[in-house]
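Hi F.,

I've been meaning to write this up properly since the lab meeting, where we talked about keeping a consistent format for the predictions we share between groups. The idea is simple: the sequence comes first, exactly as it goes in, then the structure tokens exactly as they come out, then a line or two of notes. No screenshots and no reformatting. I'm using this chain as the first example so we have something concrete to point to.
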Amino acid sequence: MERNEKGGMKLIVGHYGSGKTEFALNYALEKASEGKRVLLADLDIVNPFYRSRNKSEFLEERGVTVVGSSLENGVWADIPALSPRIFALFDETFGERLADVGGDPAGARVLGRLHEKLDGHQYEMWMVVNANRPETGTADQVIRLLKEIEAVSRLKVSGLVSNTHMGDETTWEDVLAGNRLCREVSGSTGLPVRYTCISETLAGQKPEGLEGRVFVMRRLLRDIWSQGGENHV
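Output, unedited:
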């Protein structure tokens, strides 16, 4: 079942390896393809390997404005620095404003710095869940992590994104298992399942009973490190 989204900004959080950055990239590109003015703020100051700003040139070419590190060579620098440009998140001339937040409570801590600024602004905070990660394999684990992220960010999660995968080996069984987990979390917390993500290879069919909008994702970060740090797709 699909549910209406609020306007304003979207804050994307989750566990390391959940695929939150891939989701943020794909979501931003979809909205840009619809003709919307899109901002993607990379707020990950924890993990230097898979960041939205590593695809900044690719995204900019497709109409997505990317902000992140304050350093001139900040795309690849492993230094926890954020640009004042991240406050463009509050620029309502952008039709879509997304924040790709670092993994776990450690990464979500950066949102605490924006807490007062966010007061009075409409936002949604979506937690991306991968049931194949050992730390988020049960509903109790997901809820525990969710509460920890809320505590350090001082913000409330408002929706779930089911993104259970095994890379290129992902099957419909993985997708269905992840969706069941998110439905269980939803039943315990009242949070809606906004999206269920699938790979392009699974896009030809849709099993019955999936909660949330089925969202086809293209893997964009796969070859960054295996091919010398270039922005290959």
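Notes:
The chain has six helices and eight strands.
The longest helix spans residues 172-189.

If this format works for you, I'll send the rest the same way.

G.
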